[in-house]
Description:
By secondary structure, the chain is of the alpha/beta class. The protein has 2 domains: about 5-120 and about 305-335, Alpha-Beta Complex (Quinone Oxidoreductase, Chain A, domain 1); about 135-275, Rossmann fold, CATH 3.40.50.720. About 25% of the residues lie in helices and about 25% in strands. It has helices at about 50-55, 125-150, 165-180, 195-200, 235-240, 265-270, 285-295, 300-305, 315-325, and strands spanning about 5-15, 25-30, 40-50, 75-80, 90-95, 110-115, 120, 160, 185, 205, 225-230, 240-250, 270-275, 310, 330-335. The strands form 3 sheets. Strands 3, 4, 5, 6, 7, 14 and 15 form a 7-stranded mixed sheet that branches. It has a 6-stranded parallel sheet with strand order 10-9-8-11-12-13. Strands 1-2 form a two-stranded antiparallel ribbon. Strand 14 (about 310), helix 9 and strand 15 (about 330-335) form a beta-alpha-beta unit. The protein starts with 6 loop residues before the first strand and ends with a strand. It holds the Pfam family ADH_N. It comes from Paenibacillus rigui. GO terms for molecular function: acryloyl-CoA reductase (NADPH) activity.
Amino acid sequence: MAPHLSTFRALVAEQGAAGERFQLTVKEMNAQDLPEGEVLIRVQYSSLNYKDALAVQPQSRIVQRYPHIPGIDLAGTVISSEAPQFQPGQAVIVTGFGLGVSHFGGYSQWARVPADWVVPLPPELSPAEAMAVGTAGLTAAMSIDALERHGLEPSQGPVLVTGATGGVGSFAVALLAARGYRVAASTGKAAEQSYLRELGAQEVLSRSELQREAVRPLEKQAWAAAVDPVGGRSLAFILASIQYGGAVAVSGLTGGGDIPTTVHPFILRGVSLLGIDSVYFPLERRYALWERLAKDLKPTGHLDRIGSRRISLEQVPEAVESILSGQLKGRIIVEV
């Protein structure tokens, strides 16, 4: 059947009355409903990210127009392409750019996207494994890559990972351990110590140890670097505790957007704060990091450990509540 005659299922977010929760409903759609783009993809899997949960909250204003199909990640096969670099049947990944935010996303059996958003699926990964990684794993890989470009090496000392049971944190722990780093993992979930140690953490800290009521301009030097997808008040303590010349790669703000810090770590210890943006990260560097993720994680078995839970489109609304309440561990793969 020709693509323009076919229908497909998608999870659609629709805006209700002012201040009310958005409605999330699985609906039948057709190709004419999709936005413009050179590549039409049959989506097999997506994933659930904190940003996906925020996209269906009226107060977040992440999405500007509704009805909308969320999902900032997708993996599938090309149905048709106007771009010569992609052929029908080719396995591909799309993450970031406008997917699931300004452009219909991955919670849909079909997606049409610009060709310069598309990355070929590394042959070592299945589509499901790629979505176990998704934006979270890519962000972790970007964070470690930024720290290593800054000069980080395993011999320099332990690396702190905050929010360690979340998607970015879990992958950061596993990737750092696989590359020979000593990892200190911070979490608010005391029951998940064994999970973090299985991923490779040598030390597990309580979240409260980083959230000091009073942070001195400079604390005792504790870590060579940090991967921080949390931000907020704890980042002030982390910056004050990084070793001389070290760096913090920050990629999130679940702990808040304000940092009650001083300039002292930057001008007296030469500490650097490295911002990580997975949305517009250059395409040519994305594929190299996807290959690195496959090489470092595939042999460890951690892909299955981190992305062990799968849900259907119909189960996404319930899962959104779990991620917003901080109950999620690892990654959730959405079977489309």
